[in-house]
Amino acid sequence: MAPSSCSRFTGDRGDLTLTATTRASMHRQELTVRGAQGAAKELVELSVPAKYRWVPDGLSGDSRYNVAQLYARLAESIRDGKPASPSFATAVTRHHLLDAITRAWETGRKQVL
Predict the structure, then answer these.
(1) pLDDT greater at residue 15 or residue 21
(2) CA-to-CA distance for 43 and 52, rounded, in angstroms?
(3) Residue 6 — φ and ψ, nearest 5°?
(4) Does the pLDDT of residue 5 top 90, yes or no?
(5) Taking a C-beta distance cutoff of 8 angstroms, is the pair 31, 19 a contact?
(6) Taking 50 as the threshold, does the pLDDT of residue 1 lie above it?
(7) Which of 13, 75, 77, 91 is 20 to 30 A distant from 108 in Cα terms?
């Protein structure tokens, strides 16, 4: 199946792509991350680091995985008495980052945050 969308990120140390393989809703996307560092031009598929995996290893990587990840984080939040989602301040920080990315693209200059 051909990818439905792909985002490419180019930095001073390499490239990353994030490819969605379905046109399902955002919550049901099957995503593939590929990357290359330094002089390497060929992007290779990257695995998700264990610290971002909150469900058992045997669970398949389809849309059920995404729901299980969400429930695992929600359960952790309830156990720890912490918010289940990022705060408004986190959203503001992300928007500053997105603004810097846009400025870098428009000016062709590295931005400092």
Answers:
(1) 15
(2) 21
(3) -145, 135
(4) no
(5) yes
(6) no
(7) 91
Cα 47 to Cα 27, 61, 73, distances in angstroms: 19, 11, 20
Q: What is the pLDDT of residue 26?
A: 53
| CA–CA dist 89, 91 (Å, integer) | 5
CA distance 91 to 110: 22
Q: Is 87 exposed, middle or buried (0-12, 13-18, 19+ CB in 10 A)?
A: exposed
Tokens of residue 103, six digits: 């400025």
Q: What mean pLDDT comes out for the span 13-31? A: 74
Cα 57 to Cα 101: distance, rounded to the nearest angstrom: 34
Q: Given the structure tokens 């931005």, which residue do they identify?
A: 111
Distance of CA 84 to CAs 63, 67, 97, Å? 20, 14, 22
Which two tokens mark 66?
A: 């995404």
